[in-house]
Amino acid sequence: MDSAMTADTRVVASSVRRRGRYYHLRRFSFISLNYLMLTIIGLISSIPLFWMISTSLKESGKEFRFPPELIPYPVAWNNYIDVWGDTGIHQFFLNSVFITVLATIGTIITSSMVAFGFARINFPGRGPLFVLMLSTMMLPGIVTLVPQFVLFRYMKWIDTPLPLIVPFWFGGGAFFIFLVRQFMLQLPKELDEAALADGASYLRIYWNIILPLTGPALATVAIFSVQSHWNEFISPLIFLNSETWRTLALALRSFLVDASDFAAIPPWNQLMASGVIMLVPILVLFFAAQRYFIRGIALSGLTGR
pTM of the entire structure? Predict the structure, then answer.
């Protein structure tokens, strides 16, 4: 009897081991296939980036040679030097940095203040006001472009950086307010109650307690805001007329038009070098703040009250 039970136990154990090996093999195959597909998709998606970098390092006349040179030889580093020094792109780069930094600071400060009010303060009409604020996300930006232009022309702000900076010091945008509010709702309400009991004002609670705890969400706001302002094209095109405050996005387009003169072939290698110059700050920012970006998306996302 014991021998029969021992044999049955061995059979069951052997079957369990076989099933375990089959499960792990199947899981390993599934994960490997996923990684393989993601690698292929990533390589295909990076082809335009690789082509832009490759073209920016080619000598003039070799941009469209067939068969194409994937790795340029010789490497023409002088394309970047010529673009930076001869086209005045360094000034446009500084203009973009100035506008992006000030607009981003305004977005972070004001969006967090409005989000604090919606998340931590009970006041009459909070719910309807929040819904009204969210409804502005459904309004296309192009609809408000003409009224904004009329208003800024009346205020004599046209051809100055003010239309690209000042509006973002008044809330920063409904999406950013919603993002930060969702994060603040997850913080314990006891923090506010304890601070109020000690005599702290709401402004001090916001600045000394809530704001330091909202770092991941603010980092996410900063990344999205920098990317938006850095790549913005329509607003600078409408509000900026002269080259004094021209941004880098406008400079790339004007550089293409001016160089081509609508007839000759533009210097594509220098144009690609300008594109790389515009892309590098965004890539550096993303990889530097990637941890905060992912954490902010994960924690601030879809929960709330």
Answer: 0.81
